[in-house]
């Protein structure tokens, strides 16, 4: 598989795909929800920023070291955009990657983020041949930490006041899982 190729992924209820122009309205709605943005690096998004972001994500290579690719999370039954997930291959160690995710508030607490990230992690290990995948969460973001634990990721670090975030020093958890751990946990899963 070449870096430019991203086949799209499916799970029982979701489709993980590249963004397209029709996503602008839904993308703006969740990106401008203060509760959704609480633990994210952004606060809000203009329509122009959304259009530029979507245009960039449509063609950004998948798996290129140092380039983070955000992918749309779509409901299979309604085709509604419900959020996005992130995959960035490490620029210094190209067999390691980081994941991230954002979900619109009406779709939270229903297992959609876990389902989407499980598909992305499986893809990264099986198709991109990653060795290790990490995820980070603000320590106050209990839902994100719980999601990574459900995926079988282990908490490897607690970073005390490790970064300045939205006007305050913030603590962060670091989670990780190795390819062989993922494959063992998901043996027999499709």
TrEMBL record:
Report the InterPro entries cross-referenced here: Acyl_CoA_acyltransferase, GNAT_dom, N-acetyltransferase
| Organism in which the protein naturally occurs | Capsulimonas corticalis
Q: Would you say which domain of life the source belongs to?
A: Bacteria
Q: Name one Pfam family in it.
A: Acetyltransf_3
Gene3D superfamilies found in the cross-reference section: 3.40.630.30
* GO terms of molecular function: acyltransferase activity, transferring groups other than amino-acyl groups
> What protein is this chain from?
Ribosomal-protein-serine acetyltransferase
């Amino acid at each position: 598989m070449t870096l430019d190729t991203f086949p799209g992924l499916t799970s029982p209820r979701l489709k993980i795909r590249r963004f397209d122009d029709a996503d602008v309205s839904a993308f703006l709605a969740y990106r401008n929800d203060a509760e959704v943005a609480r633990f994210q690096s952004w606060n809000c998004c203009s329509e122009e920023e959304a259009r530029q972001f979507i245009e960039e994500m449509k063609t950004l290579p998948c798996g290129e070291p140092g380039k983070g690719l955000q992918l749309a999370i779509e409901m299979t039954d309604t085709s509604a955009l419900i959020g996005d997930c992130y995959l960035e291959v490490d620029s210094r160690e190209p067999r390691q990657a980081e994941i991230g995710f954002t979900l619109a508030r009406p779709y939270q607490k229903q297992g959609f983020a876990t389902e989407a990230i499980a598909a992305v992690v499986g893809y990264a290990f099986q198709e991109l041949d990653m060795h290790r995948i990490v995820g980070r969460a603000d320590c106050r973001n209990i839902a994100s930490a719980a999601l990574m634990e459900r995926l079988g990721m282990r908490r490897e670090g607690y970073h005390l006041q490790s970064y300045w975030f939205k006007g305050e020093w913030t603590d962060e958890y670091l989670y990780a899982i190795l390819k062989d751990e993922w494959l063992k946990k998901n043996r027999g899963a499709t």
